[in-house]
Amino acid sequence: MSTMTINGKLAPLPDDPDALLVDVVRDALDLTGTKLVCGAGVCGACTVLVEGEPAVSCLMPAGSAANRNVTTIEGIGAAKLHPVQKAFMAHDALQCGFCTPGFIVEAAAFHDRWRAAKGTAVPSRDEIGAALSGHLCRCGAYDGIFRAVADACAGRFDGDEFVPPRMEARDKVTGLAKYTVDIHHDGQLEGVILRSPFAHARVSELDLAPARAIPGVSAAISLLGDDRIVRFVGEPIAAVAAGDRKTALAAIAAIKLSSERLPSAIGLDEARKADAPVVFEKSARKKAGDVSEGGGAPASWKGNVRGPSAAFSKKPKKVRSWVNDARAANNPLLVEGIFRTGTQQHACLEPHAAVARFDGDRLTVHVSTQAVFHLMELIAKRYKLGHDKVRVIADHVGGGFGSKAALGVETTTAIELAREAKAPVRIAYDRHEELSVTGYRPARRR
Ligand code: FES
Ligand code: FES
After folding, report:
1. How far apart are CA 65 and CA 62, in angstroms?
2. pTM of this prediction?
3. Ligand 2 centre and the CA of 141: distance in Å?
4. Residues near ligand 2 (Cβ within 6 A)
5. C or N terminus of the chain, fewer CB within 10 Å?
6. 261-313 pLDDT, tens per residue?
7. Which residues contact 308 (CB under 8 A, 6 or more apart)?
């Protein structure tokens, strides 16, 4: 078995040639300061140092770390904070903090190189930008980051530690802050959701037995509604829980599914046509809006067109009469046109995630949520549990931007799988799920 030296200690590497360094670091070694976000080498959240050089661990086969020195955020400033860490705290160069460990690892390496070559000269904004160009901060803490790196390089944070303005700053700059995706209970299982590949279909057969037969699989459940109809690509169909994600994915692939394709409308213009197939017939309209912002507000329906919602347009008749009067009077102040907006995504760096665990009749759920108490109430109501039996925890949230206030499928599925498997279950969406099924502001045409 090969080994690497990580933060000064020897650690074994798996024989699995598919294993990635980020998974070994996070799952096997519980060094969860290294974050997995894009999984594609573009966001920098998973950055570690390999022989002192920054590397994205989400693209690095674990085997290539053999006999090498790896440093994660936990190995930086463990005994004494690095000047970059102090500068990030002082400049409040972070908000949710999910991107912060990756930024700190890269910025500390840049700082050390810079100081060795240029003393306390101040790097320009362009030089700092070039050094950190492989990192994304969805919260937009860039200005503080630029100032922090410049001041650290100038030697302004070489001195003693201090009390930062943000109380959780130290945990965030050292990688010790635990987000929902970082929670790990003994015996915890990984949950994965089978999603519809079809825009519109009726599921005639769903056989979970082949998934349950795979060694390591502890639970498999259907997520279909009573009508067994899926209405968008990505709609949940079933879920499994297994000892690890690889097994869970294999189990999802083993599920037998037959379905009858139904006509679909793809895109705004197709869906608006008078003869477009109706996505949500009257009886299913309550289901609509699950993946769109503002979907719950009262509004009229015509075919696939819903709205305008009363919440956004309170006096449509009055507005129409103003427009008609202005047209009749050739009022030059009247500007008319068709206005379109594209789809806007929240793109939280920490994906929607939940870890559910039953202890007897008590349920504890770590959720990446912006609404802890509200969620506790919704969970208690849905599962007919007393408020004193449900605990919802979100110590840190890696961005929400309004998309993490509802009781989402990740949470209900983690709870239902945990109940079925009689073991804690984590569901953490991958980036594809995060960008497609976690709520967004739909495209509009007005
Ligand atoms: S670059 Fe590795 S998670 Fe984004
Ligand atoms: S602080 Fe950078 S993504 Fe939130």
Report:
1. 6
2. 0.92
3. 7
4. 94-100, 137-139, 141, 349, 399
5. N
6. 999 988 888 988 999 999 888 888 877 765 455 556 677 788 888 776 666 66
7. 299, 316
